[in-house]
Write a structure and sequence with these properties.
CATH superfamily of the largest domain: Immunoglobulins
Strand content: over 45%
Low-confidence stretches: none
Distance between the termini: 42 Å
Helix content: under 10%
Mean pLDDT: 91
CATH class of the largest domain: Mainly Beta
CATH architecture of the largest domain: Sandwich
Number of strands: 12
CATH topology of the largest domain: Immunoglobulin-like
Structural class: mainly beta
Shape: rod-shaped
Largest sheet: 4 strands, antiparallel
Number of domains: 2
Strand order of the largest sheet: 3-2-6-7
Radius of gyration: 25 Å
Length: 134
Amino acid sequence: GESSANIISERTGTITSVQWMKDNSPLSPSNSIIFSSDNRSVSIRPVQRSDSGEYQCTYSNPVSSETVKLSLIINYGPDDVFIQGEDVVDLGVRVSLSCSANSEPSASFSWKFNGSDTGVTTDTFTIDQTDFTH
């Protein structure tokens, strides 16, 4: 299903203005960004990767203003998984394969060879010297 994020900033006293920013730019309403009628909360539905960032809300009245900040991290992935390396090599040479993927938090890795776990848990799998079994 769709994920959503609700950012609510609560302050007391007389407030004449509430301004929202994301990454130091004004936050504007859109199909996925909806402000409450009193402008004190923002709903984001559905959340996208691009919604990650620093949000800030500034409350103002004739006497003063106050800004509160929130860092929003959107978790996703892994996706766009890609393995890079030579697929044809001579016997006896060293071979390194590297894997990359987009994700938040960072992806963990495990390598298999012919269906068996190799025990390698880094983004790079190296065969020091190829033979007939590799």
